[in-house]
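Lab intake sheet, docking and co-folding queue.

SAMPLE TYPE: protein with bound small molecule
LIGAND NAME: S-adenosylmethionine
LIGAND FORMAT: SMILES
REQUESTED OUTPUT: full 3D complex as structure tokens
PRIORITY: normal
SUBMITTED BY: R.K., bench team

The fields below were copied directly from the construct record.
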Amino acid sequence: MASLQLSVPNIVGSRFKRRPVRCAVERQDLFNRIAPVYDNLNDLLSLGQHRIWKRMAVSWSGAKPGDSVLDLCCGSGDLTFLMSEKVGSYGRVKGLDFSKEQLSIASSRQYFLSKACYNNIEWVEGDALDLPFSNGYFDAITMGYGLRNVVDKRQAMREMFRVLKPGSRVSILDFNKTTQLLTAMFQEWMIDNVVVPTATVYGLAKEYQYLKTSIKEFLTGEELEKLALEVGFSKARHYEIGGGLMGNLVATR
Ligand SMILES: C/C(=C\Cc1cc(O)c2ccccc2c1O)CCC[C@H](C)CCC[C@H](C)CCCC(C)C
Ligand SMILES: C[S@@+](CC[C@H](N)C(=O)[O-])C[C@H]1O[C@@H](n2cnc3c(N)ncnc32)[C@H](O)[C@@H]1O
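RESULT FIELD (auto-filled):
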């Protein structure tokens, strides 16, 4: 088990080849700020349901024992740990994120959760828009609640296509920009009347208000499928889950 230095987590060095744009720096700062409460608020505000949605995303990725896989925008590592269990000790998992604080939480969790297979995880501080990996490197990719947060969704999709092996899949879980009026109204009501008031207790109101604007600016399931096909994926299908509140795009290279 890698020795953990809590102050300096076992993260591979920064692999930024270009400076993130201002908007990306603002998002980087946002996720650094919410890192200490992120996991607990996800459990509380989704009544633990997000763990089911994440397991579905990992299953859809097609990851199997011995694979080399990537969890993009890994944050505190929820999907990274699930992918680690899926590929086992002979597999390899890279969890990439540009938030040092999120990666620090992930690295600490790896140490305290201390499952043998978690030795197969490498944490990488990097940019989803400029991945530090070779073409055709991964057997599967997951991206949980990341695509909505990157400043250039097309570039992120291009990079996922580039680093995937032919015939392999990417599984992208996020909020669903639903076209169902009642679902949209419920989603917005929950954010306004439950999520943001709860986050306010932690002094994070504006960070969680961002959820609403980011969903409004996101792509619908149909638009996500179209984007995946445009960048070169051979197949793309968006599944609505969680009563339509969430969605998962599965695309095959
Ligand atoms: C795991 C979830 C969200 C992750 C997440 C993604 C972001 O882009 C953020 C941006 C800014 C701040 C926080 C996040 C963030 O946490 C989904 C579940 C957690 C949500 C915060 C709760 C959403 C509530 C649903 C709209 C309604 C749930 C109804 C029912 C209890 C299942
Ligand atoms: C909502 S969190 C999702 C974390 C985790 N995947 C999960 O499902 O809980 C979004 C993550 O994306 C990261 N992120 C956003 N834009 C990024 C980029 N361009 N490169 C790398 N990470 C990015 C943030 O730092 C944050 O940790």
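REVIEWER NOTE: The helical segments are 22-45, 49-61, 78-87, 100-113, 153-163, 181-201, 205-216, 221-231.
SIGN-OFF: pending second check by T.M.
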